[in-house]
Amino acid sequence: MEVVFLARIYEEQGSFRLADSLESINAKMLRRHPHVFGGKKLDTAQRVLEEWHRQKQEEKSRASVLDGLPRTLPALAASFQVGQKASSVGFDWERAEGALAKLEEELEELKRALRDADRAAVHREMGDLLFAAANVSRRAGVNPEIALLQANDRFRRRFAYIEDRLREQGKDPERAGLEEMDALWEEAKEKGIGL
Question: Is 71 left (phi over 0), alpha (psi -120 to 50) or beta?
Answer without folding.
Answer: alpha
